[in-house]
Amino acid sequence: MSNLTAFESEEQDGYIKIDQYNQKQVEEIASYYPAILRALGENPEREGLVKTPERVAKALQFLTHGNDVDAAEVLRSAMFEEEYSQMVVVKDIEVYSLCEHHMLPFFGKAHIAYIPNGHIVGLSKIPRVVDAFARRLQVQERLTNEIRDCIQETLKPAGVAVVIECKHMCMAMRGVQKQNSVTTTSAFTGAFQNDVTRSEFLRLIMASLD
Ligand SMILES: [Zn+2]
After folding, report:
1. Domain CATH for 120
2. Catalytic: which of 27, 28, 100, 141?
3. Where do the GTP cyclohydrolase I domain residues begin and end (predicted)?
4. 149 CA distance to ligand 1 middle (Å)
5. Domain encompassing residue 21
């Protein structure tokens, strides 16, 4: 993260929001957008568009900043030895990602469980792992597997379960498929490959799978 510099800060509702951008990358991405706007038949000089290239560049940088996050390190920073060995479920984690085929958003919820095997992890770290992999150019299937593999390899639990349900704007906005369809993906390791354990997990998250 050392190549990032605090670029602007603004006070909002009493808290200081600090956005960090790689200024060189912002400038490079922004430099292409006047040509893209012209190719779309727009006038990049008109008032509403003058700052658009820079805004788009910053947005894209933010939406892909997961590339700079070491998700395993996020988990390792809050792992504790603990004998607890029942299922730990974190559900309704917000997911915002960018489909790598169209660079349009897909978003929804992730439900994650693991069964500790000597270690537990601070609960707030699970959503941060989701974010680390979601803030990249992604497909939902790979996102699901990357979260599962990161938790399995780092925490070494008796099993990991990941279910993600998302709406894809490339489907909804382009009207190519049912507008409100939700895509569900899942990935399991260890104990969750057992029907009874997996069913218990699915029952626990079912309230939000509607
Ligand atoms: Zn897409």
Report:
1. 3.30.1130.10
2. 100
3. 34-205
4. 23
5. 6-63
Strand partners, 184: 165
CATH code of the domain in which 25 resides = 1.10.286.10
CA of 42 to the centre of ligand 1 (A): 24
Total domain count, the chain: 2
pLDDT in 10s for each residue of the chain, 210 residues: 344 544 444 444 555 555 678 999 999 999 999 999 999 999 999 999 999 999 999 999 999 999 999 999 999 999 999 999 999 999 999 999 999 999 999 999 999 999 999 999 999 999 999 999 999 999 999 999 999 999 999 999 999 999 999 999 998 888 766 667 899 999 999 999 999 999 999 999 986 544
What is the C-alpha to C-alpha distance for residues 137 and 55, in angstroms, rounded to an integer? Answer: 18
Q: Which residues pair with 5 in a beta bridge?
A: 21
Q: How far is the CA of 69 from the centre of ligand 1 (A)?
A: 23
Confirm or deny that 99 is annotated as ligand binding: yes
170 is catalytic: yes
Q: Where are the alpha helices (DSSP H) in the chain?
A: 23-39, 52-63, 71-76, 125-134, 140-155, 169-172, 195-205
